[in-house]
Amino acid sequence: MEKPTQCAVVGGGPAGIVLGLLLARAGVHVTVLEKHADFLRDFRGDTVHASTLRLLDELGLGDGFRQLPQSRMDNFRLPAGSGEFVLADFGLLKEPYNYVAMVPQWDLLNFLVDAARQEPCFTLIMNAEATDLLTDGSEAVAGVRYRIKDPITGGTLETHDLRAPLTVACDGRGSVLRAKSGLTPKEFPVPFDVWWFRLSRDPEEIERVASISPRFGDSDVLLSLTRRDYHQIAYLAAKGSDPELRAEGVEAFRNRIVRLRPDLSDRVGEILSMDNLHLLDVKLNRLATWRQARSPPDRRRSPRDVPRGRGGNQPGGPGCGGCRQGSLRRRCWMAVWMTTPSLRSRRGAGCPQSSCKRSSDSCTGPSSTRSWRASSRNHPECWSS
Questions:
Q1: Contact by Cβ (8 Å): 19, 8
Q2: Which of 90, 26, 130 is nearest to 373 (CA)?
Q3: How far apart (Å, rounded) are the C-alpha atoms in residues 226 and 232?
Q4: What is the pLDDT of residues 203-260, one digit of tens each?
Q5: What is the pTM of this model?
Q6: CB 210 within 8 A of CB 226
Q7: Which of 168, 122, 165, 163 has the alpha carbon at shortest distance from 146?
Q8: Residues 56, 40: contact at Cβ < 8 Å?
Q9: Is 3 exposed, middle or buried (0-12, 13-18, 19+ CB in 10 A)?
């Protein structure tokens, strides 16, 4: 039996790690489960946008983040005849948030984990794959069951139960916990899928680093993200056409790329086989309900009593997998709200605690690295446990 925690977060991506960091800084004991042995996975979200840069500054992590190897995207251009058309100019935004940083996601996650591990309340368990939800006698969600995998064979080495009054599912598009909790998203049609791959880049090429170069065909699109020593390329075609593309073979696929980008003809041979292509099954879906907290009828909370927000942009709010202790849920939500001024500005001037009538100015402390701790003392009724 694993030692209980106050909050179990399943999924060690950006949402799960940042949520763990915020809660740990607020004194909430949090355990994050990540099913992989490391973060070294290619073709993940490598763009860090202005809103995230601002959040990192608010957390006191901005200077450290800017020391990571990265490139800077200042605008987004489209080809127009013999020239280019600037579709988006990030330089028009207010400094220092007037660009998009391109950082390998594994560097970002390792950086965030290093910051989170400085907090005594934070625990990260790698190679731990959640397999089921735990429930108590009243069928309320009471934690998760997970297995420790063999990093080579993928077989199960150990099985553990992690009990927690609050469970947050950050395990991605194929969420096991979402399925286990009975939360079924509504699916919307998407007309295309994406195949990711990379080709080498000659340092003498004139394309700017961190630029995006799109090319449009009759029924397909090629997006090339220029990195320092390679092109990260996305090929977009009709959804469900992956079997057809693979049946055509690698030479036919190379020809598709050359048709859209003739200047890459000298290196498409680097696509050795169709196994070099990473399919992204693009989905568009939405959950009408973000929580599942089964409990006796006399203890159920009205939906209007549950903290609301904008999904993944506000981790710890509506992304709750289950919570039986309303006071802990309020404490977790207030931890996120107190430490991020940009989040407070999106929600309005008031405190999200329903019984609180104070404005943001009277309910928060400064936004420096540690000064949020004073906020809980200045406004203890929002942090009662």
A1: no
A2: 26
A3: 6
A4: 777 566 656 778 889 999 998 887 777 888 999 999 999 999 999 999 999 999 999 9
A5: 0.73
A6: yes
A7: 163
A8: no
A9: exposed
